[in-house]
Amino acid sequence: MGNQIFVLVVYVLTYAFLFGYTAYLLVRLGRRA
Amino acid sequence: MRSERPGLDAVSWALLGLGYLLLLIGFYFAIQAPPDAQQGYLVRILYLHVAAAWTGYLAFVVAGVYALLYLLRGRAGYDRLSAASAEIGLWLSFLMVVGGMMWARPTWGVYWVWEPRLTSVAVMIAIYVGYFLVRQAIEDPELRAKAAAAVAILGVVNIPITYMSVYWWRSIHQTATIDVINRKTHMPPEMLVPLLVNLFAFTVLYLAFLRMKGRIAALAAEEERYG
């Protein structure tokens, strides 16, 4: 069970990156509109 | 004349939508997958770690192909796409390393060890950090693009070394789960499915990011030219 924290960290970080990067690109594209 | 229209195009929207849908399905399969006999639930890290690693390699190879196209044809658009792909590849590689470290700590007892796979990955990341240092350092756009292309092509040479490091040297890192050389998989279907779905999701999202970043760079270049 103790190892679950490592799994959680990886999932949170990975999804946070993907959402964050998508948002960043959308904002950058939007600004050029 | 301006050729690029601002905003997000239909293909990018479609790729983003499909990518996130697949990511959601991949997450569902990942939490449904049984724990590994030896690794327990830690095996779930692998579904994202391998997907990030694979798309990172893909992004660097694509960056190398566009770099070569730039050197052959001299069109600035190829240089922009090469840089866009290298940037996404670098981010994916960081994700892959963090995922790997989080897996290594409870499995090997350390976050990092200088063994062949990890060392060749460190070299790979250093090359692409160098790629962006080169881009930052040179002001002349043509010279910058040529120098960056040389680094991007050098980087591609290192990719097979990184991939094959687990076979060529004595490594504590696992060999490939999906062994493309011997066309074998070392996984039961209930673990292979979440891995493949995540792999596909990351690849589609990578394509969406590349397209969006390429457009941003093209718009920026037009703005610079026409004000």
Radius of gyration of chain A: 15 Å
Q: How far apart are the termini of chain B?
A: 12 Å
Number of helical stretches of at least 4 residues of chain B: 6
Number of domains as seen in the coordinates of chain B: 1
DSSP strand count of chain A: 0
Strand order of the largest sheet of chain B: 1-2
The gyration radius over C-alpha positions of chain B equals 19 Å
Beta-strand content estimate of chain B = under 5%
The first-level CATH class of chain B is given as: Mainly Alpha
What is the total tally of β strands of chain B? Answer: 2
**Can you give the mean pLDDT of chain A?**
90
Largest interface: A-B, 22 and 32 residues
Give the CA-CA distance, first to last residue of chain A. Answer: 49 Å
Helical residues, percent of chain B: over 70%
CATH architecture of chain B: Up-down Bundle
What would you say this structure looks like, in words?
The complex is a heterodimer of chains A (33) and B (227). By secondary structure, chain A is mostly helical. Chain A is built from one helix and no strands. Chain A starts with a helix and ends with a helix. The model of chain A has no long low-confidence stretch (mean pLDDT 90). Chain B is globular and about 60 Å long. Chain B is mostly helical. Chain B has a single domain (10-226), classed as Up-down Bundle (Four Helix Bundle (Hemerythrin (Met), subunit A)). Chain B has a two-stranded antiparallel sheet with strand order 1-2. Chain B contains six helices and two strands, in the order αααααββα. In chain B, helix 2 (43-73) packs antiparallel against helix 3 and helix 3 packs parallel to helix 5 (141-168). Chain B is 77% helix and 2% strand.
List the helices and strands and how they pair.
The complex is a heterodimer of chains A (33) and B (227).
Chain A: H1 4-31
Chain B: H1 10-32, H2 43-73, H3 76-108, H4 116-137, H5 141-168, E1 178-179, E2 184-185, H6 189-226
Antiparallel strand pairs in B: 1-2
